[in-house]
Amino acid sequence: MSYAGDLTPEQAWDLLTSDENAVLVDVRTDAEWRYVGIPDAGPIDGRAALVEWVSYPSGRPNPRFLDQLADAGVTAGRPVVFLCRSGVRSIAAAQAATAAGLGPAYNVLHGFEGDVGPDGHRGHEGWRAAGLPWRQV
Q1: What's the CA gap between 83 and 52, in Å, rounded?
Q2: PROSITE patterns per the record (predicted)?
């Protein structure tokens, strides 16, 4: 089952700030949250959750993913925007949520920091590069 679609970081932010029911779910690992940073949910009244899609360092799928989404208030009919590092894990998360009847579920293109650029570093595209709110944990 397909998910609702892909959004640029700016489109995702517009949805989150214009729809008080929309929730942001960052599906990166705990290590990524701690060392790279997370979206700042303050401007969207805290409507964000950190739910690993896979665990670090094992790389194993999170067996409680759907339960943790429910704990975060993700339900059928409530828009959910998934974010990862570069926009790959978040597609899988959006597909899983959709298959479970949650959402509409969206993927943020380029994720939090995008793919590796020509200089060998990330951060040229995505949430942070777009200047959207974020913070260190």
Answers
A1: 11
A2: RHODANESE_3
Total structural domains within the chain: 1
CATH number of the domain residue 111 falls in: 3.40.250.10
Identify the domain containing residue 81 by its residue range: 5-135
- Specify the 3-state DSSP secondary structure of 9: helix
Phi/psi for 94 (5° steps) reads -65, -40
Residue 95, token pair as written in the block: 């597909």
Q: What is the pLDDT of residues 34-76, one digit of tens each?
A: 999 999 999 999 999 999 999 988 999 999 999 999 999 999 9
Give residue-wise pLDDT tens across range 30-39.
999 999 999 9
Question: Do 86 and 111 touch, CB atoms closer than 8 A?
Answer: yes
What pTM was computed for the model? Answer: 0.96
